[in-house]
């Protein structure tokens, strides 16, 4: 098993060495400020009681409240959550938003639960955690297998327990429903990670030697991958492959992501989709494409398969999809890896806009949200590209250096 937290630490210390940051700063950032493990008792529909383990890791709050999603996954563990929290600290610093880094996880396969069991689990997690979160303390959001509906249950439970009237403690909430409009989700949040990823891609594309309309393979078609596929296709790119956890489909002439999504919704599988070849997730990564977009889980591109990955540009919409060994090999062969802490920052940026709207009692038009997203993210992509060129380092190292400079200027004092 590849440990994502060890990978995150290797990235952190590697960049610190290039940027010549003081070891005190890096030692502090190598640890979480607070780690909470909770037990969540859930009454199942058949009357039995089951216990689920959950985590919230609060990595660093020097730049603002801890911020990061909650993942529901059978393989979630504390090291994964630690890694994701550390990356959130770097991501919010790269994005230049006044937030810190945190992350949560519950060890569960939500596909095995009924809707009411899922609601009880979501509310139970908040009951176990509510004293440690809050609009000025720690602001969770959705991640793998957590949805706007789950955020709605969580924020409702939090409001009941705490009396908070802002609903600003959770982002990625739905739009509509029974809560006042200025306490709901933000316009544009659903597509934000995929769209932000496209803005970053568009900013670096020409410099990376990728033509407009190039071929793209996308692993994962959840919130992030599904939106990314539609956005790439709508901008004239040829999306040749898509996948879910069970496998993928490939057509070298291009797929229609809307049709693929519709098919998956109806059949709950991609198997049988007409006019495409069935492929495994491993095969998807090795397709002869210009752009590869991992948008599922960590550790997909490793020293085991990197020699067969042929894409010119890898846009990391998932967190931690490339191991440090694979990263090094890709760099040596001249591939451009647009790192997660830049590529997928669109989600946390619009989450921050949602938090701001809730605190101010406002609800912004979609156009305003998307304009602000682009204005926030694209200059950071340009800056990181420039920094990578100046220092002759990969984009990931440059992104960590930019984040570390911003963190160093506000670092918590040692006592
Ligand atoms: P999601 O649950 O909506 O979708 C996950 C997708 O990955 C699904 O299509 C699922 O079938 C697929 N998948 C699961 N296991 C897989 C496997 N072993 N191989 C291939 N595909 C698999 O989750 P999401 O919100 O789209 O998150 C995807 C990635 O993006 C994660 O790494 C997450 O941390 C990252 N991310 C999400 C956001 C966000 O706003 N949701 C923001 C930044 C980063």
Automatic annotation (TrEMBL):
Glutamate/phenylalanine/leucine/valine/L-tryptophan dehydrogenase C-terminal domain mapped to chain residues: 186-412
Residues the UniProt record annotates as site (Important for catalysis): 143
InterPro entries (alphabetical): Aminoacid_DH-like_N_sf, Glu/Leu/Phe/Val/Trp_DH, Glu/Leu/Phe/Val/Trp_DH_C, Glu/Leu/Phe/Val/Trp_DH_dimer, Glu/Leu/Phe/Val_DH_AS, Glu_DH, NAD(P)-bd_dom_sf, NAD_bind_Glu_DH
Alphabetical GO biological process terms: L-glutamate catabolic process
Signal sequence coordinates: none
Binding site for substrate: 67, 91, 351
Amino-acid positions noted as binding NAD(+) in the UniProt annotation, renumbered to this chain: 193, 223
Region feature Disordered, mapped onto this chain: 169-189
Keywords: NAD, Nucleotide-binding, Oxidoreductase
GO molecular function terms attached to this record: glutamate dehydrogenase (NAD+) activity; nucleotide binding
Xref: PROSITE patterns: GLFV_DEHYDROGENASE
Active site, UniProt feature: 103
Top-rank lineage group of the source organism: Bacteria
Record-linked PANTHER family: GLUTAMATE DEHYDROGENASE, GLUTAMATE DEHYDROGENASE 1, MITOCHONDRIAL
Family: Belongs to the Glu/Leu/Phe/Val dehydrogenases family.
Name under which the protein is recorded: Glutamate dehydrogenase
Source organism (scientific name): Candidatus Kaiserbacteria bacterium RIFOXYB1_FULL_46_14
């Amino acid at each position: 098993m590849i440990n994502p937290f060890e990978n995150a630490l290797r990235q952190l210390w590697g960049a610190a060495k290039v940027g010549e940051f003081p070891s005190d700063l890096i030692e502090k950032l190598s640890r979480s400020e607070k780690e909470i493990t909770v037990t969540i008792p859930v009454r199942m529909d058949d009357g039995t009681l089951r216990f689920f383990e959950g985590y919230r890791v609060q990595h660093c709050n020097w730049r603002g409240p801890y911020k990061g999603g909650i993942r529901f996954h059978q393989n979630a563990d504390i090291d994964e959550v630690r890694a994701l929290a550390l990356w959130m600290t770097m991501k919010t610093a790269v994005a230049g938003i006044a937030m810190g880094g945190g992350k949560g996880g519950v060890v569960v396969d939500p596909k095995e639960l009924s809707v009411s069991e899922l609601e009880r689990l979501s509310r139970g997690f908040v009951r176990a955690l509510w004293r440690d979160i809050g609009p000025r303390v720690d602001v969770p959001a959705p991640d793998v297998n957590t949805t706007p509906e789950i955020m709605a249950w969580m924020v409702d439970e939090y409001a009941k327990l705490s009396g908070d009237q802002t609903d600003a403690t959770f982002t990625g909430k739905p739009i509509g429903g029974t809560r006042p409009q200025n306490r709901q989700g933000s316009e544009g949040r659903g597509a934000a990670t995929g769209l932000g990823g496209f803005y970053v891609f568009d900013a670096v594309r020409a410099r990376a030697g990728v033509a407009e309309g190039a071929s793209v393979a996308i692993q994962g078609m959840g919130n992030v991958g599904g939106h990314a596929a539609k956005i790439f296709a709508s901008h004239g790119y040829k999306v040749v492959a898509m996948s879910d956890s069970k496998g993928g489909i490939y057509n070298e002439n291009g797929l229609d992501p809307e049709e693929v999504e519709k098919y998956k919704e109806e059949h709950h599988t991609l198997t049988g989709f007409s006019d495409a070849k069935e492929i495994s997730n491993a095969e998807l990564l090795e397709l002869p494409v210009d752009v590869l977009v991992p948008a599922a889980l960590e550790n997909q591109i490793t020293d085991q398969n990197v020699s067969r990955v042929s894409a010119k540009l890898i846009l990391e919409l998932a967190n931690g999809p490339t191991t440090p060994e694979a990263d090094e090999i890709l760099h040596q062969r001249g591939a451009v890896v647009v790192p997660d802490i830049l590529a997928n920052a669109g989600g946390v940026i619009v989450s921050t806009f949602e938090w701001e709207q809730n605190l101010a009692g406002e609800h912004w038009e979609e156009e305003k949200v998307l304009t602000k997203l682009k204005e926030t993210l694209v200059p950071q992509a340009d800056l990181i590209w420039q920094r990578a060129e100046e220092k002759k380092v990969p984009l990931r190292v440059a992104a960590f250096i930019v984040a570390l400079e911003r963190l160093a200027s506000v670092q918590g004092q040692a006592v």
